[in-house]
């Protein structure tokens, strides 16, 4: 009886991998006009995948698609509204998307009592609501066909509180927590759908300029982070943390008293003032 179960298991695994070999996999990447999103598109195209790039900046998207060739296409859309997220999903749901990369997001720097409320709400809409909506919609499709990858881009900020960037850190805590919860549901269902969450430290992208901060330590190379993230996503790694220093940092923060960690976090954030 055990031999029969073993044969059934390996037959399922073999069929699963053959299916992925014969199907042209297609990825949808949000926030794809620059930084990690653009570099992940480059990595996927080099590996033979098709990509649909989503961002607000048409000129940037056109330039990137021209670079990537006929395996890439783009949709110009601001996905910070739920309506636009639904509209995006309806535009691509017949494209047989196999990979969803929720990369769009930005940060707001400053004391919580002084930061601009409208800007923070826009950030919450993009970092949380759009990711939530797209993850739910595509997860339903992936579960129906019992395959697919979701990569949610969070941050090392997702494991702690961040004075001077309190709302940004909170938004990334949401992304980490949501992704972990979905992972366990999929595991309990014995699903072939995979979800991962990318949690890098500082990365050399436009994030600094938008948030109006300057990192006191050198950021990781965006292309290196993208390569590592894609590799680990296909390895079905749950939490993806590029760089040994950041891995160690995230490991050791769990042993620090909360108030001490807050003091350290404040000092680090305060060092980012432009």
What report would you give on this structure?
This protein is α/β, with parallel strands linked by helices and 274 residues long. The chain has a single domain (26-270), classed as Rossmann fold (3-Layer(aba) Sandwich), CATH 3.40.50. Helices cover 54% and strands 12% of the residues. It has ten helices and seven strands. The chain has a seven-stranded parallel beta sheet with strand order 3-2-1-4-5-6-7, sandwiched between helices. Helix 2 (35-46) links the parallel strand 1 (26-30) and strand 2 (50-55). Helix 4 runs parallel beside helix 5 (117-145) and helix 5 runs parallel beside helix 6.
In short:
The chain has 274 residues and is α/β, with parallel strands linked by helices. It is built from ten helices and seven strands. It has a single domain (26-270), classed as NAD(P)-binding Rossmann-like Domain (Rossmann fold).
Q: Count the E strands.
A: 7
Contiguous runs where pLDDT drops below 50 for at least 5 residues: 18-22
CA-based shape? globular
Q: What is the distance, rounded to the nearest whole angstrom, between the alpha carbons of the first and last residues?
A: 67 Å
Question: What would CATH call the architecture?
Answer: 3-Layer(aba) Sandwich
What spatial order of strands do you see in the largest sheet?
3-2-1-4-5-6-7
Number of helices: 10
Write the layout of secondary structure elements.
Blueprint: H1 2-22, E1 26-30, H2 35-46, E2 50-55, H3 58-68, E3 72-76, H4 82-92, E4 99-102, H5 117-145, E5 149-153, H6 166-188, E6 194-198, H7 207-211, H8 222-234, E7 239-240, H9 244-253, H10 258-270
Parallel strand pairs: 1-2, 1-4, 2-3, 4-5, 5-6, 6-7
